[in-house]
Amino acid sequence: MRIGEIAALVGVTPRAVRHYHRLGLLPEPGRRANGYREYGIRDAVLLARIRRLAELGLGLDEVGDVLAGDEGRELVDVLEELDADLARQERVVRERRARLAELLAQARAGRLPADGPVSPELAEWLTELGELGHPGVAAGSPTAAWDREMLTLLDTMVPEAERARMVELLRATAGDAAAALYARLDALADAAPDDPRVAETAEALAGIIPAGMAVEVPGDGFADVLFADLAPAQTAAVRQALRLAAERAA
């Protein structure tokens, strides 16, 4: 048989056969006087085995291990490993579908934020705040929009086991005081960093920051990204508030 014939017989492409030759999975057969490869039944049997192993999900390096194994013991090991890997993939798929079901439920109920998706814990709290298009404490506030974006980023960074605690800490900051602070921060958009209102706003903001969230932001590249959308006076107020809250928590 020539390469096209053995490929058609086994159900692969001539290109695949040449690839298996290059990888050493399929030995080169003898050649005719005209230089064409001449395949026999043993070549077809081996090629069929390579195809079956590949269809099981084995990588070609694993197929090579199986073909080099002794009395099938290597095949058992590889198949057991493949079975365990597929079981892991099934768990991941189930978890992703469960998460997708939560997001679909949020979307159908009109509770999925435009800058989401976010965790169910944060989505629930944002809904309570009225941040998803319902009348709320921060409707129309540019500073509130920035705060929501930061929360969305934080929601991604916080480990799943800590999200519930994070939301509980955030709930402690909600209410009329938070709404008033958004308004005060918005009013600093055109102010200078040494405006007296900066210190007053920082003091008020520090007063509602829970001890568990009192962390001073370092002056590095992350800070540049964090405060990129805030005016200088707003940045100064938030920095001072975090510093005050961290000092009090310590």
Average pLDDT rating: 79
Oligomer: single chain
Overall shape: elongated
Distance between the termini: 81 Å
Largest sheet: none
| Rounded Rg | 31 Å
Order of helices and strands: HHHHHHHHHHHH
> What structural category do the secondary elements indicate?
mainly alpha
The beta-strand count equals 0
Coiled coil: 79-106
Pfam family, one: MerR
GO molecular function, one term: DNA-binding transcription factor activity
Keywords: Coiled coil, DNA-binding
Quick summary of this structure?
GO terms for molecular function: DNA binding; DNA-binding transcription factor activity. The chain is an all-alpha fold and 250 residues long.
Describe the structure.
- There is one protein chain.
- This protein has 250 residues and is mainly alpha-helical.
- It folds into 3 domains: 3-62, Multidrug-efflux Transporter Regulator, Chain: A, Domain 2, CATH 1.10.1660; 69-108; 113-249, no CATH class.
- Helix content is 65%, strand content 0%.
- It contains 12 helices and no strands.
- Helix 1 packs across helix 3, helix 4 runs antiparallel to helix 5 and helix 9 (176-187) runs antiparallel to helix 10.
- The N and C termini lie far apart (81 Å).
- Keywords: Coiled coil, DNA-binding.
- This is MerR-family transcriptional regulator.
